[in-house]
Batch of 3 targets.
Target 1
Amino acid sequence: MAWPLGWAILVHQIPDLGKGGSMVTFVAMLFALYRLSGALFTNHRYWFTTWWVVRVVALLLLCGVVMKLALWVSASAH
């Protein structure tokens, strides 16, 4: 994951690259996703940790959505 991110950061340091810089960043992110998926699906410790973190983040996201919805409903009632 670090090398593709490093390439993307390096490319964004060069001024006036235009579409070439965007293409390099896109390809670097594809490589990062490929490497991440390989790590997640072949290493069972990552699999367990990832699903645990996803559940916690989903719960926090759900709480945020419910609070925002409650504020929206209470603001529209006045």
Target 2
Amino acid sequence: MIAFGPGGAGLAGLPAPVAVADTMPVVLAVKDPEPKDKGGQGEDFGKSSPVGLLLLIVFFVAVIFLIRSMTKHLKRVPASFDPPEDDAPAAEASAEATAEASAVAASSATSDAPEPDGGPKKEA
């Protein structure tokens, strides 16, 4: 302990210096005061109303109908969108037949078509 007192080499009229080791820190714990605003948690906080229950039931019914509709649509979707392997030659043959039929229909349509003015076709 270092102290300068009346018998020491201290300055006249000034208090004697005290060593840092002789001081003791004091920490006071103070409880926080209750906040006036509870952040919207008044006396009705957490209570439901009948309107909220009705709205929740309506949402559940809507979800049930949406699930049923989606299930019906998914049942109509084929398992695979790839063309079947065994029907490939038949598909090509039917495509050729369709092309020939459309060519025949186009040629017959031009020969039997009426004149642009709406009257019957004039033969030369």
Target 3
Amino acid sequence: MFEIDNIDELYALQKGLMEIRFNATDVDWAVKGSPFLSRVHERLVETIIAHHEEIGESRKAQGWRDWRRFEARAMERPAVRDYLAEMWDELPTPEVKREAVVDQMRPFVFSDENVTEMIAEIETEWRKRSAR
């Protein structure tokens, strides 16, 4: 299997995934919304946190844990909302919609309440767009 053992390479990959998943506008929807990519991203951040813990950098590890809190994500929240609002009516069931929201919220840590709130925001945005 593929292995990265350099923290700077992990940081570079993390930054690239953040750009593709939350900042870039001209990204294939299947890449941006990939549940596989979201799980890889989640594992990557967990690996960065574990690395800092292993070498005794508990403050850096805690900084990453704090960074992961979805409530604190001002930039990514609207990116998730806007991306999913574009395809909301193509997702056939409430379960599929919820799963898509969870996939898009990774690598962040969130509660069921956060997911429910995000679904409400997406539905509001979708309704606005549909009314145009």
